[in-house]
C-alpha cells in the first residue's frame, strides 16, 4: 500500500514537473522574444489610452457605497442586452403591435398595412380584399382570436395549466437533484453529466436523429414500449382515477428530466456558493441533514428560484402547442390575427410571471455577506 502511494505521488510529481517545465519555457521565450516586447508596448498603450477612464472611475465609482456600486455594475452588464433589444427587437415588436390592429396585405409594391380595416375569412381565402367589414372595432383581431377561433383559447388554457405544473414540478425536482449531486460520493461527476445529457438530446440535431426512437414518438414512449403499466394496474383492480394519475406521472418522467438540466445547474451552483461555516456551525449545534436543508440550504438558494421559474416559463413558452396554432395564420398570410394571437400569448405569459414572481418575492431570502 505504501509503495502504491509513493508511485502515485511520484507520478503526480512527474506530471507537475512536466507542465512546470513547459510553462517556464513559454515564459522565458516570451521574455526574450520580440513578441514579448511588442505585447509590453501594446499593454502600455492600452494603459495610457484607458487612463482617463481610470481617473474618472477613481473620482466617481470608487466613492460610491458598496450597494450602489453593485447596482451600477449590474446596469453596465445589462447595457449590451438593452442595446441589442433596442437595435434588433424594438422595431419588429412595434411593427407587430401595429399589425395586430390592422390587415396586412402583400402586394407587388410591398407590404400594405390597412390600419383598423378588417376582412372576413372568405376574403383571405380568395385573396380579394374589396369588402371590408363595416361593424368591426379596432380590436377585431383580438376578438377573432378569443371568440371565433376554436383552437387558440383551448390551447392557451392548456398551456397555462401545463406551465404552472411544469414550474412546480421542475423547480422541486431540480432542487432535490441538485442537493443530491452536491453530495460527496463516488461517480459524482458522471452523475452530473448524466442529468445534463437530456439537455443535449433535446437539441434539434439529436431530435432529428432520434425521430424514429420510442423516446421521440408521442404515441409510444420507452416505458410503454417495455411494459404497459396502465393495463397491468387495471388487471389487478386499481381504480381508474388512480391509474390515470400514476400513468400521467410515469409518462412525464422523461419530459421532467429532459427539461430540468439547466435548472439543476443553477441550483447546484447556488448550493456550492453557500458559506461552509453555516453548515459547520449547524453540525456543532447537532443539526441533522434534514434540518440543515430547511434552515440553511433552502433559504440560501431561494434567491435562485425566481430565475429557475422564469427559465422554465420561457422554455415552456417556446415549445408550447399555441405556437403551432399561431403559425397557421402566418402561413395563410393573415398576419393581423397572427400578431394579435402573439400579443395575447405574450400578455398571458407576462401576467403569469408577474403573479408568480410577486408571490415568490414574499418568501425569497437574499443573503449578503458584505452588509
Model description:
With 371 residues, this protein is mainly alpha-helical. The protein has 3 domains: 2-66; 80-146, no CATH class; 148-360, MetI-like (MetI-like fold), CATH 1.10.3720.10. Helices cover 73% and strands 3% of the residues. Strands 1-2 form a two-stranded antiparallel sheet. β1 and β2 (110-115) form a beta hairpin. α7 (152-181) packs parallel to α14 (261-272) and α18 runs antiparallel to α19.
Features:
single chain, 371 residues, mainly alpha, MetI-like fold, two-stranded antiparallel ribbon, 19 helices, 2 strands, 3% strand, extended
Name the average pLDDT: 79
Into which percentage range does the β-strand content fall? under 5%
CA(first)-CA(last) distance: 50 Å
For the biggest β-sheet, the strand order reads 1-2
CATH class of the largest domain: Mainly Alpha
CATH fold name of the largest domain, please? Answer: MetI-like fold
Second rung of CATH, namely the architecture of the largest domain: Orthogonal Bundle
The run of helices and strands is HHHHEEHHHHHHHHHHHHHHH
Shape descriptor: extended
Q: Count the helices. How many?
A: 19
**Radius of gyration computed on alpha carbons:** 29 Å
Number of strands: 2
Task: Give the oligomer, counting copies of the same chain as homo and different chains as hetero.
Answer: single chain
Tally the structural domains.
3
What is the helix fraction of residues, given as a range? over 70%
